UniProtKB/TrEMBL annotation, chain A:
This is DUF742 domain-containing protein. It comes from Streptomyces qinglanensis. It comes from the Bacteria. Pfam families: DUF742 (PF05331).
TrEMBL record, chain B:
The lineage of its organism: Bacteria, Bacillati, Actinomycetota, Actinomycetes, Kitasatosporales. This is Signal recognition particle receptor subunit beta, a GTPase. Belongs to the GPN-loop GTPase family. The keyword Transcription regulation does not apply. InterPro entries: Gliding_Motility_GTPase (IPR052705), Gpn (IPR004130), P-loop_NTPase (IPR027417). Keywords: GTP-binding, Hydrolase, Nucleotide-binding, Receptor. Pfam families: ATP_bind_1. PANTHER family: ATP/GTP-BINDING PROTEIN-RELATED, GLIDING MOTILITY PROTEIN MGLA. GO terms for molecular function: GTP binding; hydrolase activity.
């Protein structure tokens, strides 16, 4: 063990391997965008993996995948693996981003919102 | 209620929480060279203090210019700063700042997918970074505007001079901004949305 008490670096590959159970995020397969909003459907349970518990806790109100990654200090690919697990178990819900081919109504809504800033 | 195990995880402050009615999000990408003011722009309009997400890519490093001839596997880690604007009770806008240099384009895959468009933030003293970026955005069909961050010690050029230096069609707006100022940064985003609206109206059949 190294002097600082850590066997690995905070964001080193070993830590990610442990957190994701060695699974690699397949970016092409992930259904999650950086701005997909995640909302918890339940409270963290006793003995739950700390990262999963943390997600359930911080997503009591909606948070984007990017924000979750930032708060967990994990790359979004690793966050995606954890979120996929939670989604599969129905512990969180995902709110998809607005259409990638924006219509005029969406564009006007963005302009209105910006003008109020 | 919160256990000790949460110590390592930052949590959103109460003021940073979105209403539960937030139902969908959109994103705009701010792209430009180092030091051009991407994070400054994001910070000036964001309702949250900008957050950072780290992206990694493992790759063989041959072909990367500054390591020419040296072949080994390396994990590239790049930090992206982003901010957020709640547009109304349902709709949220995220702004991502990303470096423009070609070696960071691996970040762009997921980033531009579904993005409304891009702001190319330009420093007139270092225009060269923008050439590749503009070419790439045009290729990918991403709507964009050019925002010139008016640094106090940089000479100001007439817009048309910049347009010809950047070889831009007249359809692409060029705006001058002060990324430190909220209204100025907001106006850049509004210019992009107006451009996108024109773009969408023109593209609609019939």
């Amino acid at each position: 063990m190294s002097e600082n008490g850590h066997g690995w670096e905070e964001s080193g590959p070993e830590r990610l391997y442990v957190i994701t159970g060695g699974r690699e995020a397949d970016a092409a397969q992930s259904r999650l965008d950086l701005v997909t909003l995640i909302v918890s459907r339940e409270e963290p349970g006793v003995g739950m993996q700390p990262e999963l518990a943390a997600i359930l806790r911080i997503c009591r109100s909606p948070l984007s995948v990017a924000e979750i990654s930032a708060y967990l200090a994990l790359p979004s690919s690793a966050t995606g693996v954890l979120l996929d697990d939670l989604l599969t178990d129905g512990r969180v819900e995902a709110r998809e981003p607005a259409s990638s081919l924006p219509d005029i109504a969406l564009i006007e809504a963005v302009i209105d919102g910006l003008q109020k800033l | 209620m919160d256990s000790k195990s949460s110590d390592t995880v930052m949590e959103p402050r109460e003021a940073d929480r979105l209403p539960s009615s937030a139902s969908s999000a959109v994103k705009i990408v701010i792209v430009g060279g180092f030091g051009v003011g991407k994070t400054t722009l994001v910070r000036s309009v964001s309702e949250i203090r900008p957050l950072t997400t780290e992206e990694t890519m493992t790759q063989a490093s041959t072909g990367i210019d500054d390591l020419a001839g040296v072949e080994h596997k390396s994990a590239t880690t790049v930090a992206m700063d982003f901010g957020r604007i709640s547009l109304n009770e349902e709709l949220v806008l995220y702004l991502f700042g990303t470096p423009g240099q070609q070696r960071f384009w691996f970040l762009w895959n997921g980033l531009f997918e579904g993005a409304l468009g891009a702001v190319v933030l330009v420093d007139t003293r270092r225009l060269e970074v923008s050439f590749d970026v503009i070419g790439r955005l045009e290729e990918a069909g991403v709507p964009f505007v050019i925002a010139v961050n008016a640094f106090p010690d940089a000479a100001s050029y007439p817009t048309e001079e910049l347009r010809s230096a950047l070889d831009l069609p007249t359809s692409v707006p060029i705006v001058v901004c002060d990324a430190r100022r909220r209204e100025s940064s907001r106006d850049v985003l509004i210019s992009l949305m107006h451009h996108l609206r024109d773009h969408t109206l023109t593209a609609e059949p019939g």
